[in-house]
Amino acid sequence: MDKATYKIAVIPGDGTGPEVVREGLKVMTAASEKYNFKFETTTFDFGGDRYLRTGETLPDSAVEELKKFDAIYLGAIGHPDVKPGILERGILLKLRFTLDQYINLRPVKLYPGVDTPLKDKRPEDIDFVVVRENTEGLYAGAGGVLKKGTPDEVATQESINTRKGVERCIRFAYNYCRKRNRKKTLTLCGKTNVLTYAFDLWERTFHEVGAEYPDIKRDYAHVDAICMWMVKNPEWFDVIVTDNMFGDIITDLGAMIQGGMGIAAGGNINPEGVSMFEPIGGSAPKYTGKNMINPLAAICAGAMLLETLGETEAAQKIEDSVATVCSRHLKSLAAGKMGYTTTEVGDLVVANLP
Ligand code: IPM
Ligand code: MN
Questions:
Q1: Which residues of the chain, if any, have pLDDT below 70?
Q2: Are 202 and 165 in contact, with CB atoms under 8 Å apart?
Q3: Which of 5, 199, 229, 291 could make an SS bond with 192 (beta carbons 3.0 to 4.6 A apart)?
Q4: Ligand 1: distance of its center to the CA of 89 in Å?
Q5: Kindly report the CA angle at 250 between 244 and 14, in degrees rounded to 5?
Q6: Which of 258, 281, 309 is the last residue of a domain?
Q7: What spacing in Å lies between the alpha carbon of 251 and ligand 1's midpoint?
């Protein structure tokens, strides 16, 4: 039977975004031919350059248009000539919020042959997934400022946690943990000893929902302790669920222990809507246009995208190829130190597709 043609919106974005997205699409195209599926892309130019040219970040009409796609593939958002916050809030966070991508899924996996800064840790020790809440918390934008610029200035930034938002995130994490079928352990990462309102809600919800998942072991750790354990005993973790801010912080730590930003991918997921996949490393202005940046994170984000569309085989084979390229070819995952250019790494992943 003829399968549908997936419609993918591509936002290459800023800095090295276009370079890595090009390699990701190269790999997805090769995979589509090999593993028999079809997709077509539509490119959108949202990002710093467009903003500097037109003053526009992401028009509401674009959000409506993006809702018609099966998935969104994003390079990077962030431009050295634009004040921090404008593009992040105006594009990246606006997409996450308006498309209600309430999960930020970030696998932390050390591939064979990749260097980790953690002494004596091997691939079997570093393989867990962070489920980060993606629409609430400190990112909601609640708060304000009084008497700005005076000695009496007051600034507040509140963390918004709704029962609905917390529950749907925790439920996703339990389901994901069950489906992943490894240690069957879900760890709640919080700060119940200090943030006694927000994480009381998280903790109660965690246990109430957890009662419906008797096959999943429940574990809790404060966020500061999680940082410690991620370095000391990463093998303890299977799936970690946490709020937006803590998730942001611990996944940068996660990226480092899995070998760096060059390989760290993530998905902004709306299980009932349109999801968006991105390398989590940002726009890397220093390397822009130099054909030096590592495209593996973007390629892995492409694999996550295909997985979400149901192209499980293609996703798995891309991951297998990335693992092969890491173990047999690349000298390092760091930009400029791979022993290959950005384009060549993309070619290697295509050539090694099993
Ligand atoms: C990330 C990034 C973003 C975030 C920034 C760019 C707004 O750091 O995707 O982790 O804080 O979520
Ligand atoms: Mn981040």
A1: 1-2
A2: no
A3: 199
A4: 10
A5: 75
A6: 258
A7: 10
Ligand 2 center–CA 299 separation, angstroms: 18
Domain range for 191? 116-258
Please give the distance, rounded to the nearest whole angstrom, from the Cα atom of residue 252 to the centre of ligand 2: 6
- Which DSSP helix (H) or strand (E) runs through 305? helix 296-309
Decide which of 228, 258, 288 is a domain's last residue. 258
Is the CB–ligand 1 distance for residue 14 below 6 Å? Answer: no
Nearest Cα neighbor of 220 from 237, 245, 244, 197 is 237
Q: What is the pLDDT of residue 3?
A: 73
Domain match, 137 and 249 both: yes
β-sheet with 127-133: strand ranges across: 38-43, 5-13, 71-76, 275-279, 265-269, 103-109, 127-133, 239-242, 185-190, 217-222
Per the structure, the count of domains in the chain is 2
Closest atom of ligand 1 to 252 CA is: 10
- The answer to whether the CB of 241 falls within 8 A of the CB of 187 is yes
The pLDDT value recorded for residue 1 is: 52
pLDDT at 2: 60
Ligand 1 neighbour 248 (Cβ under 6 A)? yes
Tell which one of 58, 88, 96, 132 to mutate to probe ligand 1, the residue whose CB is within 8 A of the most ligand atoms: 88
Give the pLDDT score at 222. 98
- Cβ neighbourhood burial of 294 (10 Å; 0-12, 13-18, 19+): buried
Instruction: Looking at the structure, tell me whether residues 147 and 73 fall in a common domain.
Output: no
Question: Which residue minimizes the CA distance to atom 8 of ligand 1?
Answer: 248
For residues 1 and 95, state if they share a domain. Answer: yes
**275 and 187 in a common domain:** no
If you search the block for the tokens 């507040």, which residue do you land on?
Answer: 156
**pLDDT tens-digit map of 287-337:** 999 999 999 999 999 999 999 999 999 999 999 999 999 999 999 999 999
Both structure tokens of 43: 């490119």
